[in-house]
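Hey, quick one: can you model this chain's 3D structure?
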Amino acid sequence: MRRLWHGIIAVSLVSVWTVGAAWAQAGPTKQNRQGPVTVAVTPASPLAAETPLRFRIVLDTHSVGLDDIAMERAVVLRTANGKDVAPSAVEQPQGSGHHRQAVFVFPPVADRGEVHVVVKNVGGVEERVFTWQIAAAR
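Sure thing. Here's the predicted structure for all 138 residues.
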């Protein structure tokens, strides 16, 4: 009986670990670790057509200063037709030195489909592209 319980516990732990690892990889935050700066992008609201798109962008490093980066000019939304759109607002800017973050608000896109958040010229990397699917309007 004791072996049975140990087996059940072992299988349960492996199942939880496997599901947890898969969820973490498929979670909403996407990261790019090229160069000396890690960039993480997370949707800050549901991604649907005809609603403003909001993304939290975090810059993190231990080797270069980030204070000289004009984040409002370094981030654009690239639409399905290849047009780069500047943020309409930058909210909740925080941090300095080696850690910075803010929420970028972009105008609504008309249709569902793919959009790209592009972070330009940060940490010596020309472009970092993060891709999401936009759902149909609700």
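One thing worth noting: Confidence is low (pLDDT under 50) at residues 7-26.
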